[in-house]
Amino acid sequence: MKKTLLYTILLLTLALAACNSQPEPTPSPVPPTPAAVEESTSIPTAPAEPGEPGDALEPGGIDVALSLVTIPDQETIAEVNGKEISTALYEEELNRALQSVTASYGVDWNDPENQILLPMLQEQVLEQLIQRELLRQLGDQEGITIDADTVDEEIALIKTEIETDEFFADWESFLAQNNLTEETVRELIAENLLMERLVEKHSGAEATEQVHASHILVETEETAQEVLDKLAEGETFANLAAEYSTDPSNKDNGGDLGWFPSGAMVPEFEDVAFSLEPGEISGAVETSFGYHVILVHEKEERALDPAFYTQDHQQRFQIWFEEQQAEADIKRLYEFNPEIRMD
Fold first, then answer.
1. What is the CATH number of the domain that holds 229?
2. Residues 289 and 318 occupy one common structural domain
3. What is the pLDDT of residue 140?
4. Strands 256-261 and 207-218
């Protein structure tokens, strides 16, 4: 499902302070459906009640954060393929990120636990600017343009959402509370649309080889062998899944995992599942979840379902973008914290 336009803007502003976190593993090796927007934040505070932008300028607010951050005394803070990113632009983006996070999450910057996050936030703001510049360059290379009428349509939809959202009184309140101008919003929308078109262009096919399989998950290799012995004696896979499997999500339906493409499972599980022919049962397969006995029902090329389609395309685009980033001539001309590196 495509994320809402309002959350697109919030992602490009508020989420600058969010740590890149991986979902917790689950007993089934199928990863959870990726969220449209990463809403977690590394700042350990509850969201504040909506208010005017000036509310953040209280003791422990953005004024405290600004007194603690470092603004390099140099004109250029980074270069991407020879294109300079100015320190002035970095300072503007950092102020916007701090304003948004402080106002929206009620952060007390007098709290040392919050203060230690500032170098990471600074590094993330810079990395965001570098990635946005690289995306613009890649779009230019591939002849992708975002016309003004398309941006106008997106802004109209955002304004409609703002009008029905209880958090912001109106469009002007949204802009003020997030330290945004309409021109900045237009730029962010254009960059997001550009990224969507690059994702469509570099994210792979809509259909791919998939496997339909079931599994029985147990804690030890000895138990897995016991299951295999009973299968050899003629007991059914479904009955043994109900009796033995520790995966509560599918033990009562025969351990059925449904159809899944390459990249959806942990590698140890996937390598075995894709190597089996329909009707074949694996030996004991060890993963971080325990030991699996895998039964493959079917294998064929199929259209990806929406959850896997989104996940697969995001992963493929990420791989492509990281390759472009590795080949790009990126110079970071200031280190906020040498121990923090985003790539």
1. 3.10.50.40
2. no
3. 95
4. antiparallel
Please give the residue range of the domain that contains residue 121. 5-204+312-332
Mean of pLDDT values over 45-60: 43
Q: What is the pTM of this model?
A: 0.63
Average pLDDT over all residues of the chain: 81
Q: Are 17 and 97 in contact (CB under 8 A)?
A: yes
**Assigned domain for 338 exists:** no
Of 78, 186, 200, the C-alpha closest to 134 is 78
In this structure, is residue 342 part of a structural domain? no
One domain for residues 122 and 188: yes
Query: What's the pLDDT at 27?
Result: 54
261-287 confidence digits (pLDDT tens): 887 899 999 999 999 999 999 999 999
Q: Looking up tokens 């997106």, which residue turns up?
A: 154
What's residue 43's pLDDT?
A: 30
**Is residue 175 domain-resident?**
yes
DSSP annotation string for 210-279: EEEEEEEEESSHHHHHHHHHHHHTT--HHHHHHHH---TTTGGGTTEEEEEETTSS-HHHHHHHHHSPTT
Alpha carbons within 13 angstroms on the beta-carbon side of residue 194 total 24
Which pLDDT band, with edges at 50, 70 and 90, does 49 fall under?
Answer: very low
179-215, pLDDT tens digit by residue?
Answer: 788 898 899 899 989 988 998 888 766 788 999 999 9
| CA–CA dist 318, 315 (Å, integer) | 5
pLDDT of residue 120 exceeding 50, the answer is yes
- Among 62, 4, 6, smallest CA distance to 174 is for 6
Burial label for 324, CB within 10 Å (0-12, 13-18, 19+), is middle
Are the C-beta atoms of residues 272 and 282 closer than 8 Å to each other? yes
Q: What is the CATH number of the domain that holds 25?
A: 1.10.4030
C-alpha 128/C-alpha 93 separation (Å) is 9
Q: Does residue 104 sit in the same domain as residue 247?
A: no
Q: What's the total number of domains in the chain?
A: 2
Q: Regarding predicted confidence, which is higher, 30 or 322?
A: 322
Residue 292 pairs in a beta bridge with 217, 285
What DSSP character marks residue 36? S
